[in-house]
Amino acid sequence: MDKIQKLAIGSIFVGTVVLALKYAAYRITGSIALYSDALESIINVVTAIAALLAVRLSAEPADKNHPYGHHKVEYFSAVLEGVLIIVAALAILREAYAGFLNPKVIDAPALGLAINGLASLINAGWAWILIRQGRRLRSPALTADGRHLMTDVVTSAGVIVGLLLVPLTGWNWLDPVLAAFVAINIIWSGWMLMKESIGGLMDEALPETMLSRVREVIAINAEGAIEAHDLRTRHAGRLVFVDFHLVVEGGMSVTQAHDICDRLERALKAEIGEAQITIHVEPDNKAKHAGIVVL
Q1: Rounded distance, CA 148 to CA 26, Å?
Q2: CATH no. for residue 261?
């Protein structure tokens, strides 16, 4: 079991603990805003399970039917998270509307908010770990899970601050209004999550900063060649795909051209990690005098 799968299992455990704490806070207070927080935690557990299944499947080696591997399955997990987040937000809006029509007094707010605050601190720590490790391991499922949890932390903080005002002001309607704001924020989070994941499914190019580094690595390590052009990149989960045309002298031997390609592949993999690199070698009469000039 690799580190990504261990982190995914950890998310299920942490999500279950946080759900139990937030549900306890809701049961103690009867607050609709805390109910919305607990409902989002149910989604956290479900999406953590989906993320675990996704990272396990993505780790499967390439086979006859999937010669490029199973890395993109993580994007499907992230899209599922986005859909479930939006469904949860709509359920929260429904409860918020009912609560606004019939406001209720919140019971034992201090104890309920303290329990909810503890749950949020646990969420914040785990979200930080997931985002940091997800980026380092280039796992869209883990990064998406971490961002979702961090959104949960922010909304929980807003709920806690808002509910502290209820007993001070006597504005019982503030509870459902806060729940509605939580729902709107959750919808935005779900939409952004799906947007990023769909970009991965649509074979978006690498970010410009990484793309510039790829060009630089090719220019520095292609000694013996003339130029490189028609560079294309995409990413599928942890795997990065890079392909380009490499122009060499027309009289160069196959062995010499192959040595240059091997050197480029080693340099690129050292820079960007797990990658599949395809280099099309061309003679000098195919030069476009554009693209990457070999230094």
Answers
A1: 21
A2: 3.30.70.1350
